[in-house]
What does this fold into?
Amino acid sequence: MGQKTNPNIFRKSQTSKWDSNYIEKKNNDLSLFTSKDLETRKLIYNFLKKNNLIIHSCKINYSNNNLLLIIKFQQSENSLNQIKTLNKLQNIRFKKCQNDIIVNRTKKKYNLLAKKIKNIVNYINFKYKTLLSKTNLVNHKIIKMRRIKVLNYYKKFLTLRKNKTLKNLSSNSFLKPLFKSLECFYNNIETFTLILKPLNNNIFYNINKNQKVLLKKKLIKLKKYQRNNFFKEGVNLIFALLNETNSSELLATYISWSLKKLKRHNFFLRFLKTILTTFLTKAFTNITKGIKIKIKGRLNGASRARHKKIFVGNRMTLLTINSNISYAEKTAFTSNGTIGVKVWVCEKV
It folds into this structure.
C-alpha cells in the first residue's frame, strides 16, 4: 500500500523555506532547539486561540543570546467586538455625585435631608419586597440579568481606569502573560524581539477602482448569506488568503472554528465554495492558482461519517516536486464527534 507524504516536508529543500532557524554549537543542541521550538509554537497557538485570533504563520530565529519572533494573524469577529466594548468604556466619564448632607448647614436642614433619605430607603425596600412577593418569575430573572450586566460592565471600566488608555491596557493584558511564559523556556536570552503583523489592516485600501466595481457586482451574488455571522469574517479572510503566501493554515483554522460553532455544515460549505469561485480570478489574485479542501466527519449531525471535497481554480500537480504547495491539517471538535479538515493551496513559483 502506498503512503501519502506531507507535501510541506516533501518540498522543504526546493520551493519552501524553514520557519525556524538556529545555529548549532554542540551536538546536543539539535534536540534542545527542536523541543523548545515545538513547545513555543504550542504556547503561541493556544495563546492566540484564547484571544480569538486566527494565526497565519509563526517564524522563529535563534542566534547568540537573541530571539526573534514574527507572527502573522487575523482578527476574528469576537476579538473585534471586544475592542469595540473597550473603546466605548474608555469614553465613559462618571459624574461626581453631589453630597446631600453637608456639615456647614444648620441642624434643621440636616434633619430634613436625613428624613428624606430614610423615606427614600424605606420606599425602595417596600418596592423590592413587593417584587419578590409576585408569582411572576420572569421579572426576577430580567432584574438579575440586568444587575449582572452592569457589574461586568463596571469591572471592565475599573480595569481601564487603572491603565487610563487602551494602548496601555492592550500591552499589559496581551503581552505580559506571553513574555512571562516564554521566560520559563529562555532564561539565558538577553534581547527578545517580537513582531506582530495583523492581516486585517489595509486589506481593502490596496484595491483599485476597477476591482471595487467588480467587488460590488460579485457581492450581490452572495446576498443569500449576508445575514449570517460568518459572512463578514469570511470575506475578510479570503482577501487575506488570496494576497498572502503560505496561507493554507489560516483557511484550515477558519473552517475548523466555523464547523465547531455552526450546526448547518453543508450550508456553510456551499458559501465557502461560492466565495472562492467568485474571487479566485486574475482580477483579484496574482499569487494563488488553485485550492483543494477535503472534509470528513458527521456533517449536519448525520448518523454516518462521510467525506466532502471542494476543488477551485486550476488542477494541482501534487506529485511534481517543483510545484509550490502549502498544506495544513486541523480538527473540529463538535457535539457529534470530530471533523477532519485538510487544505491544499497551489501558488505561483
Remarks:
- The first helix runs from residue 7 to 10.
- The CA atoms of residues 39 and 111 lie 69 Å apart.
- Residues 208-349 form a domain with the Ribosomal protein S3 C-terminal domain fold (CATH 3.30.1140.32).
